[in-house]
Amino acid sequence: MSPHLLSFPASYPVINCRVLTAPPPRSFPSTSASLPPLSSSSSSSALQCPHFESCSGCSHELNLHRPVVVDEAADFFKSFGVSDFTFDSCRLWEWRCRAKLAVRGSSLNPLIGLYEEGTHNVVDIPQCKAHHPNINACVELLRKGIRQLNIEPYDEDQWTGDLRYVLMAVTTYNTSLPASERYRNGRVQVSLVWNSRNEKSTNAEKLNELASFLWRNGGSKSKVPLIHSVWANFQTSTNNVIFGNRWRHLLGEREFWENVGGIDVSVDPSSFAQANTQAFENLLRKLQKYVPYGASVTDLYAGAGVIGLSLAATRKCRSVKCVEINKESKQSFEKTVERLPKLVDGSISWHQADTSVKPSSWLMGSDVVVVDPPRKGLEPSLIDALQTIASVERKERRPPSESDSPEDKEEKRPWILRAREASVQVGKDLSSETNKQLVPKTLIYISCGWESFKEDCKALVANKAWHLEKAHGFNFFPGTRSIEVLAIFKRGPRVQLKKKKTKKEKKKRL
């Protein structure tokens, strides 16, 4: 499908985005065009989903290419001196590569979908326009298996039944196919959330039967190979927590890989991954341009370190430190590091730590700091550390005293020692050689929560410790009010460029 270049009226802010002209069932175009007025593309960028009225997944049916919040974002950034805000509308349909779906109803009439807004009534969504087509195909295969094998969906009122939820994740990693065909032929990792303590429970036989049915009809040797692997998660809690702590690989490939940001990334079912793989790829490629070659980078809220490792590979970073509080991300980080290009020779480390505790210790010694916090935004202590970065710099410049000598301070605090044990170091440890007086010059903020980002942005620039230099938006969740923001801050106040004098002004002076 070819892109259509659309004119942009002068009354709108200058925003670049990608627009798709129609939602064909299995077409995966990549187009780019200037953003049109709302009315000019409302029909060609409509959701056209039969589940829209009842499903809580999407809140906007028209103008998927430009959520209403985009205009607000453009005005907000303009008030901080950024007049060239861009917005990438990304793929508008069939974009979701990761879906958590509730399973309710009965074995004869299973409902697989999302809760209706404000209720615990599940809406069946077999024709979801946001899902990758192979997720919808696997949902139908699962529905068939539930009926044939008499699997009982979970009953929230009675706490009975077998199958509570299903997590479906698409991998488009397949080097045997041309790059243009990989997305369309993505395979699905199916994780069944089973209502039992473990694989030895009384209903475990049903779990194995369902897994075998899925693999037999959708696995690698089936007529239509849809399924990458089948996993089980065991959960008996009566609260609203979807997953339990126990995971088991049942069938298919154990390792799940995706290629984003120029590297192969390992993703476990239990670890976080972006639902919109292609939009995340677009964001990473844009982000990489703001990191100088050979920089020292700290990646906070790093997860499995995808952003930091992507920078290590593409920007030849001297050092990359990934800091994450969730210990489950460590295994994915280690697997991803093993697949990094051999030319990556910088110092790379992953640390299990809470960034809200002594955050300045992570900031110092880096040229660039990347933050990708949850929807609630940055921790207050981290904002404070970033605000006072200038005073931190002055403090670090004082000559070291004898009491600062590491030989005089043997670390004995058990929580610090445990944290060190949880860390991973790849390549030479440059911490002892790093210039501890080095203060970050660039702050790269990735936000999935627009309201919290606005507050954090105001706080960061309030005392002129930082100024906003660039901002970009990405349509990670078409059909919703949400946008993903990539904001680039530079240390210190904004430097106002002097206007060049016109010929008339020069003549007047003469």
From TrEMBL:
Binding residues for S-adenosyl-L-methionine: 274, 301, 324, 372
GO biological process, one term: methylation
Catalytic site positions: 448
Keyword GTP-binding: no
Pfam families named among the record's database cross-references: MTS
Entry keywords, A to Z: Methyltransferase, S-adenosyl-L-methionine, Transferase
UniProt keyword ATP-binding present: no
InterPro entries registered for this protein in UniProt: RNA_M5U_MTase, SAM-dependent_MTases_sf, Small_mtfrase_dom, U5_MeTrfase_fam
UniProt GO MF annotations: RNA methyltransferase activity
Matches recorded under CDD domains: AdoMet_MTases
PANTHER family in the record: BNAA06G32370D PROTEIN, S-ADENOSYL-L-METHIONINE-DEPENDENT METHYLTRANSFERASES SUPERFAMILY PROTEIN
Recorded family membership: Belongs to the class I-like SAM-binding methyltransferase superfamily. RNA M5U methyltransferase family.
Protein name as annotated: Uncharacterized protein
Source species of the chain: Punica granatum (Pomegranate)
Taxonomic lineage of the native organism: Eukaryota, Viridiplantae, Streptophyta, Embryophyta, Tracheophyta
